[in-house]
Amino acid sequence: MADIFDGILGQPQVRTYLRRCIESGRVSHAYLFTGPAGSNKTSAAYAFASALLCDTGGCRTCETCRKIARRKHPDVRFFTPAGANGYLVEQIREIVSDMSLAPIQASRKIYILDRADMLNAASANAFLKSLEEPPSDVLIILLGRTVEAVLPTIVSRCQVVPFRFIPPKEACGIICQKAAVSEQRARVALEACDGSISRAIAFCSSNERMAFRTRVLSGLAQLIDGDDWDILSLSSAFIADAKVPLQAVKLAQEQEFEEYGEYLSRSALKQIEARNKRAISAKSFESLHELTAIIRSWVRDIMVTCAGTPDLVINVDVRGSIDDAAAQTDEVRAASALAQIQRYDAMFAYNVSPQSCMDALLLSLRDTLFDSAFAPYSAKR
Length: 381
What we know:
The chain has helices at 12-24, 41-53, 63-69, 89-99, 121-125, 128-132, 152-155, 168-179, 183-192, 197-204, 207-220, 228-260, 266-306, 319-326, 331-347, 354-370; strands spanning 30-34, 76-79, 109-113, 138-144, 159-162. By secondary structure, it is α/β, with parallel strands linked by helices. Helix 4 (89-99) links the parallel strand 2 and strand 3 (109-113). The chain is globular.
């Protein structure tokens, strides 16, 4: 019979383990989920939260399960590093202080901390006591890429749950099945979502997000011979498009306040406001990373075309612009452009204007790919 853990796609051993934890009643106070990006660690954390907070172990239909699925439950908190170089000591102290407060709606609170590898020595020290002995109504779930990347003092206080890498072909098969889409649509969605299966399912099921991808890929053709004004105009259009999903999030938050605001205490309202602020920030980063992932996929397709392997192109619907671009650049410049995208994508975590960052990225890509003055060599020009 289907249950809440069926949503942890591509991780049968994890599903079995978490089911046994719930069925046996042996739930640890702290877990460390480790695995590569796209291995569904976050989905697993929220599924575990539903199984623990739902009266029937994760029915997926009650108000508690629906709120957790929408990331709206006030007692399920998700955190990402507040600093460019990781979690700040002040941020961890605020989380620890919040743990001492009573749950708002459920019998316990669940704290999910992404990128546990970005807990440095100072922030980890502020967290260790609470991680080892949190309040009885608190469960902590840390998410990290590898055990080795997380401080040993953190690892030793958690139950480690490893997630396996899901090969792209298998991931596409899961997306095709769950979203009822073609393999090609699944591939482009997976590329746009940096390998995350759950996000790719939502992405390829949304005509709006697929149309966003098409507009970005079509606009990138301007990099081939566009002047500075063209590129800056393109950048503005990209950022405006990336902000569209935020409006839906803000509207849902406003409706929630109108519905429940008058019934909640001031402290509860402050907690919800803080949660909403985190949700907006997370959605903003997600949209920006989708934008850079789409750009990266276009440059990747240019590189494989330059390498004489056009059968590896993913964005076949814009093959014309990819072939045109490949005819005016080479593998070395494409590889350099990919490295630049990676650097600029990481800059979104800093307190940098997204518009300024995108302006600089697109101008840099144009010059690196198509300006002979910036090329390592000019074999094609």
